[in-house]
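Amino acid chain
________________
===
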Amino acid sequence: MLFEEERKQRIVLFVEKNSRASVQELSQELGVSESTVRRDLKELEEAKLLKRTHGGAVSLQSVNFEASYPDKEDRLLDEKQRIARKAVEMIEEGDAILLDAGTTTLQIARELKTFSNIKVITNSIMALNELRDCRNIEVSITGGMLRPDTLAFVGPMTERSLEMVRVDKTFLATNGLDLRDGITTPNMLEAATKRKMISVAKQVILLADHSKLGQVSFCKVADVTEMDHCIIDSGASDKFIRELTQMGVDVSLV
Protein backbone atom coordinates (compact mmCIF):
# COMPACT_ATOMS: atom_id res chain seq x y z
CA MET A 1 0.00 0.00 0.00
CA LEU A 2 1.55 3.27 -1.09
CA PHE A 3 1.41 6.42 1.01
CA GLU A 4 -0.31 9.34 -0.69
CA GLU A 5 2.84 11.39 -1.39
CA GLU A 6 4.70 8.34 -2.72
CA ARG A 7 1.74 7.51 -4.94
CA LYS A 8 1.61 11.03 -6.36
CA GLN A 9 5.36 11.01 -6.99
CA ARG A 10 5.02 7.76 -8.93
CA ILE A 11 2.19 9.25 -10.98
CA VAL A 12 4.34 12.25 -11.95
CA LEU A 13 7.30 10.05 -12.85
CA PHE A 14 5.11 7.68 -14.89
CA VAL A 15 3.52 10.55 -16.82
CA GLU A 16 6.88 12.26 -17.40
CA LYS A 17 8.48 9.04 -18.62
CA ASN A 18 5.64 8.16 -21.00
CA SER A 19 4.59 11.73 -21.90
CA ARG A 20 0.97 10.80 -21.13
CA ALA A 21 -1.07 8.25 -19.18
CA SER A 22 -4.69 7.23 -18.87
CA VAL A 23 -6.54 6.93 -15.58
CA GLN A 24 -6.91 3.22 -16.25
CA GLU A 25 -3.15 2.76 -16.82
CA LEU A 26 -2.32 4.61 -13.61
CA SER A 27 -4.91 2.66 -11.66
CA GLN A 28 -3.37 -0.64 -12.79
CA GLU A 29 0.20 0.61 -12.29
CA LEU A 30 -0.43 1.75 -8.71
CA GLY A 31 -3.06 -0.77 -7.66
CA VAL A 32 -5.58 1.87 -6.58
CA SER A 33 -9.08 2.82 -7.73
CA GLU A 34 -9.66 5.09 -10.71
CA SER A 35 -11.44 7.59 -8.43
CA THR A 36 -8.26 7.83 -6.32
CA VAL A 37 -6.20 8.45 -9.46
CA ARG A 38 -8.58 11.19 -10.63
CA ARG A 39 -8.36 12.91 -7.26
CA ASP A 40 -4.56 12.70 -7.33
CA LEU A 41 -4.44 14.08 -10.88
CA LYS A 42 -6.58 17.06 -9.87
CA GLU A 43 -4.25 17.88 -6.98
CA LEU A 44 -1.12 17.36 -9.12
CA GLU A 45 -2.50 19.69 -11.78
CA GLU A 46 -3.18 22.32 -9.12
CA ALA A 47 0.46 21.92 -8.05
CA LYS A 48 1.48 22.44 -11.71
CA LEU A 49 3.17 19.04 -11.96
CA LEU A 50 1.11 17.77 -14.91
CA LYS A 51 -1.91 18.65 -17.05
CA ARG A 52 -5.15 16.71 -16.90
CA THR A 53 -6.82 15.58 -20.11
CA HIS A 54 -10.05 13.74 -20.84
CA GLY A 55 -9.39 10.30 -19.39
CA GLY A 56 -5.89 10.92 -18.07
CA ALA A 57 -2.98 13.35 -17.98
CA VAL A 58 -0.05 14.60 -20.05
CA SER A 59 3.40 15.73 -18.98
CA LEU A 60 4.29 19.38 -18.78
CA GLN A 61 7.75 18.31 -19.82
CA SER A 62 9.02 18.44 -23.38
CA VAL A 63 12.49 18.20 -24.87
CA ASN A 64 12.63 22.01 -24.72
CA PHE A 65 11.25 22.40 -21.18
CA GLU A 66 13.51 23.79 -18.48
CA ALA A 67 12.39 24.46 -14.93
CA SER A 68 13.82 27.50 -13.17
CA TYR A 69 16.46 27.09 -10.46
CA PRO A 70 14.07 27.89 -7.57
CA ASP A 71 11.56 25.38 -8.94
CA LYS A 72 14.19 22.63 -8.90
CA GLU A 73 16.12 23.45 -5.74
CA ASP A 74 13.90 21.73 -3.17
CA ARG A 75 12.64 18.90 -5.38
CA LEU A 76 13.96 15.48 -4.29
CA LEU A 77 16.27 17.26 -1.84
CA ASP A 78 16.98 14.16 0.25
CA GLU A 79 18.04 12.23 -2.86
CA LYS A 80 20.29 15.08 -4.01
CA GLN A 81 21.95 15.27 -0.61
CA ARG A 82 22.67 11.53 -0.63
CA ILE A 83 24.15 11.80 -4.12
CA ALA A 84 26.28 14.75 -3.00
CA ARG A 85 27.64 12.93 0.05
CA LYS A 86 28.68 10.01 -2.14
CA ALA A 87 30.34 12.40 -4.58
CA VAL A 88 32.33 14.03 -1.79
CA GLU A 89 33.65 10.59 -0.77
CA MET A 90 35.34 10.47 -4.19
CA ILE A 91 37.26 13.72 -3.58
CA GLU A 92 40.75 13.60 -2.10
CA GLU A 93 42.86 16.31 -0.50
CA GLY A 94 44.94 17.96 -3.20
CA ASP A 95 42.31 17.45 -5.93
CA ALA A 96 41.30 20.10 -8.42
CA ILE A 97 37.61 19.64 -9.13
CA LEU A 98 35.11 21.20 -11.50
CA LEU A 99 31.55 21.72 -10.29
CA ASP A 100 28.89 22.09 -12.95
CA ALA A 101 25.94 24.37 -12.17
CA GLY A 102 22.96 22.54 -10.72
CA THR A 103 20.93 21.89 -7.61
CA THR A 104 22.78 18.64 -6.84
CA THR A 105 26.24 20.14 -7.35
CA LEU A 106 25.20 22.90 -4.94
CA GLN A 107 24.79 20.18 -2.32
CA ILE A 108 28.36 19.07 -3.06
CA ALA A 109 29.60 22.63 -2.48
CA ARG A 110 27.92 22.59 0.92
CA GLU A 111 29.82 19.41 1.84
CA LEU A 112 33.29 20.67 0.87
CA LYS A 113 34.02 22.87 3.87
CA THR A 114 35.87 20.13 5.78
CA PHE A 115 38.62 19.97 3.13
CA SER A 116 41.85 21.87 3.67
CA ASN A 117 43.62 21.58 0.32
CA ILE A 118 41.45 21.45 -2.78
CA LYS A 119 40.85 23.68 -5.77
CA VAL A 120 37.28 24.24 -6.99
CA ILE A 121 36.34 25.67 -10.37
CA THR A 122 32.69 26.30 -11.10
CA ASN A 123 30.33 28.04 -13.48
CA SER A 124 27.66 28.25 -10.77
CA ILE A 125 26.85 31.46 -8.93
CA MET A 126 25.16 29.43 -6.21
CA ALA A 127 28.23 27.24 -5.63
CA LEU A 128 30.47 30.31 -5.61
CA ASN A 129 28.25 31.98 -3.05
CA GLU A 130 28.34 28.86 -0.89
CA LEU A 131 32.16 28.68 -0.92
CA ARG A 132 33.05 32.38 -0.93
CA ASP A 133 34.12 32.49 2.73
CA CYS A 134 36.09 29.22 2.72
CA ARG A 135 39.70 30.31 3.16
CA ASN A 136 40.89 26.71 3.02
CA ILE A 137 39.54 26.21 -0.52
CA GLU A 138 40.85 27.92 -3.65
CA VAL A 139 37.74 28.86 -5.61
CA SER A 140 37.65 30.03 -9.23
CA ILE A 141 34.64 31.11 -11.28
CA THR A 142 34.60 30.62 -15.03
CA GLY A 143 32.78 33.79 -16.01
CA GLY A 144 30.84 34.00 -19.24
CA MET A 145 27.21 34.70 -20.09
CA LEU A 146 24.87 34.23 -17.14
CA ARG A 147 21.67 32.23 -17.72
CA PRO A 148 19.05 33.47 -15.21
CA ASP A 149 17.06 30.21 -15.34
CA THR A 150 19.97 28.08 -14.14
CA LEU A 151 22.25 30.71 -12.55
CA ALA A 152 25.05 29.24 -14.67
CA PHE A 153 27.77 30.89 -16.72
CA VAL A 154 27.84 29.45 -20.24
CA GLY A 155 29.00 30.27 -23.74
CA PRO A 156 32.29 30.97 -25.56
CA MET A 157 33.86 32.96 -22.71
CA THR A 158 33.10 30.12 -20.28
CA GLU A 159 34.51 27.53 -22.65
CA ARG A 160 37.65 29.62 -23.22
CA SER A 161 38.31 29.84 -19.49
CA LEU A 162 37.82 26.08 -19.15
CA GLU A 163 40.42 25.47 -21.86
CA MET A 164 42.99 26.98 -19.51
CA VAL A 165 42.62 24.30 -16.83
CA ARG A 166 42.86 20.57 -16.27
CA VAL A 167 41.07 18.98 -13.32
CA ASP A 168 41.09 15.66 -11.54
CA LYS A 169 37.32 15.32 -11.46
CA THR A 170 34.33 16.96 -13.11
CA PHE A 171 31.01 16.60 -11.33
CA LEU A 172 28.41 16.95 -14.05
CA ALA A 173 24.71 17.77 -13.71
CA THR A 174 22.10 16.78 -16.27
CA ASN A 175 18.46 17.26 -17.20
CA GLY A 176 18.18 13.84 -18.79
CA LEU A 177 19.98 10.50 -18.68
CA ASP A 178 18.76 8.03 -21.27
CA LEU A 179 20.52 4.80 -22.21
CA ARG A 180 20.05 5.41 -25.94
CA ASP A 181 20.08 9.21 -26.23
CA GLY A 182 22.69 9.81 -23.54
CA ILE A 183 23.07 12.94 -21.43
CA THR A 184 20.93 15.86 -22.56
CA THR A 185 20.00 19.41 -21.58
CA PRO A 186 17.49 21.90 -23.02
CA ASN A 187 19.97 24.67 -23.91
CA MET A 188 22.64 24.59 -26.64
CA LEU A 189 25.07 26.85 -24.78
CA GLU A 190 24.81 24.77 -21.62
CA ALA A 191 25.37 21.60 -23.65
CA ALA A 192 28.56 23.03 -25.19
CA THR A 193 29.83 24.15 -21.78
CA LYS A 194 29.20 20.71 -20.31
CA ARG A 195 31.08 19.08 -23.20
CA LYS A 196 34.06 21.31 -22.46
CA MET A 197 33.86 20.33 -18.78
CA ILE A 198 34.07 16.69 -19.81
CA SER A 199 37.09 17.30 -22.03
CA VAL A 200 39.28 18.90 -19.34
CA ALA A 201 38.80 16.22 -16.65
CA LYS A 202 40.71 13.05 -15.86
CA GLN A 203 37.49 11.60 -14.44
CA VAL A 204 33.87 12.55 -15.14
CA ILE A 205 31.23 11.78 -12.53
CA LEU A 206 27.59 12.23 -13.52
CA LEU A 207 25.03 13.09 -10.86
CA ALA A 208 21.42 12.09 -11.57
CA ASP A 209 18.45 11.69 -9.27
CA HIS A 210 15.88 9.16 -10.47
CA SER A 211 13.59 11.82 -12.02
CA LYS A 212 16.25 12.37 -14.72
CA LEU A 213 16.37 8.73 -15.83
CA GLY A 214 14.83 7.99 -19.19
CA GLN A 215 14.35 11.71 -19.84
CA VAL A 216 15.55 13.32 -23.10
CA SER A 217 16.05 17.07 -23.60
CA PHE A 218 16.74 19.10 -26.72
CA CYS A 219 20.56 19.14 -26.83
CA LYS A 220 22.86 16.15 -26.48
CA VAL A 221 25.88 16.57 -24.23
CA ALA A 222 27.53 13.14 -24.44
CA ASP A 223 26.94 9.42 -24.67
CA VAL A 224 26.44 7.58 -21.41
CA THR A 225 29.65 5.64 -22.04
CA GLU A 226 31.67 8.88 -21.91
CA MET A 227 31.01 8.99 -18.17
CA ASP A 228 33.51 7.30 -15.86
CA HIS A 229 31.04 7.04 -13.02
CA CYS A 230 27.35 7.72 -12.35
CA ILE A 231 25.88 8.42 -8.93
CA ILE A 232 22.14 7.71 -8.86
CA ASP A 233 19.67 7.49 -5.99
CA SER A 234 17.86 4.32 -5.02
CA GLY A 235 14.64 5.43 -6.72
CA ALA A 236 16.11 4.13 -10.00
CA SER A 237 14.69 0.91 -11.36
CA ASP A 238 16.78 -2.28 -11.14
CA LYS A 239 16.42 -2.67 -14.92
CA PHE A 240 17.88 0.77 -15.64
CA ILE A 241 20.85 0.25 -13.32
CA ARG A 242 21.51 -3.22 -14.71
CA GLU A 243 21.50 -2.00 -18.30
CA LEU A 244 23.67 1.01 -17.44
CA THR A 245 26.20 -1.28 -15.76
CA GLN A 246 26.16 -3.62 -18.75
CA MET A 247 27.23 -0.64 -20.89
CA GLY A 248 30.46 -0.51 -18.88
CA VAL A 249 29.60 2.46 -16.66
CA ASP A 250 30.50 2.31 -12.98
CA VAL A 251 27.42 3.10 -10.89
CA SER A 252 27.00 4.08 -7.26
CA LEU A 253 23.47 3.66 -5.96
CA VAL A 254 22.69 5.76 -2.89
